[in-house]
Hints:
By secondary structure, this protein is an alpha/beta fold. Helix content is 42%, strand content 14%. It starts with 7 loop residues before the first helix and ends in a 9-residue tail after the last helix.
Amino acid sequence: xxxxxxxxxxxxxxxxxxxxxxxxxxxxxxxxxxxxxxxxxxxxxxxxxxxxxxxxxxxxxxxxxxxxxxxxxxxxxxxxxxxxxxxxxxxxxxxxxxxxxxxxxxxxxxxxxxxxxxxxxxxxxxxxxxxxxxxxxxxxxxxxxxxxxxxxxxxxxxxxxxxxxxxxxxxxxxxxxxxxxxxxxxxxxxxxxxxxxxxxxxxxxxxxxxxxxxxxxxxxxxxxxxxxxxxxxxxxxxxxxxxxxxxxxxxxxxxxxxxxxxxxxxxxxxxxxxxxxxxxxxxxxxxxxxxxxxxxxxxxxxxxxxxxxxxxxxxxxxxxxxxxxxxxxxxxxxxxxxxxxxxxxxxxxxxxxxxxxxxxxxxxxxxxxxxxxxxxxxxxxxxxxxxx
Length: 388
């Protein structure tokens, strides 16, 4: 069997005895929309994260949109977004008519740079065209952003924090879990995420009762007392019962062993690769859920050749992300750039994600390590390799 980048088939084989009956129960009862499993899952997720309210929805992008709707974000507002992340983080404020202002990231954690954030806020205030409203902090590749510092900046300038925990679910700072750091936090259950379903799904977390009530209304056509009482303009974004049933099984495995196993896999990679390439850093007191394990090469040319070499050897790898947000055509002409974004631009040239999941065997990892090592050593004569 060829090596998988994220092995959902192996995960299903492991959980088949629980997943099949969970699916069967939904098919038998026929409650495909808003079945009891959805409410149960919301309670389990809010207990796990340690937040009062969890509101599930159709996907992680809708989760961000719903949060911005609750805060009335729109034209004239500035929303601060890391330049090195998936498109949805910047797309959602733009969709609401706000301007995403791109912020540089830190090379070692790949997450938003607090000093770049503060500079971007200052520049927007100095220009006086937009009102700074929200910081969308992304927990990239599984590690929470630097919330102690981001929170300090948010309070200093009176901004709200929207935690985009699409890749961060299961991560922690101290004992506090990802998806609890924002005024509102969101996650995604896209199949390849740390906690993924078998389709699209998302969730929103908050301790604020009023916002939670609004979120529950907005996600079902702005409903009031019942589904034919529409008190505001909303959208249609529900997590369906089948996905909730699958997620209940997966959440149990995630808590019991998957999170520990993926951290073990990350340690094996770091031990085997840190002398050869630049390996990802986890901050002191932080814990990652390792949505991706991304190494850094010297430049685009070396990265692309290593990727081709690994493919030849039957090892899948991915580039997250080949282009910074500020260079996406969709944002051209939107005046989104106020600060230097050179770290994000550089990372896009150098980053390569290796196979990573809780079911990755030590043997498979040894093979990946061996081939990365062989490629770099063979290249040593051509160019002295970047050493950490």
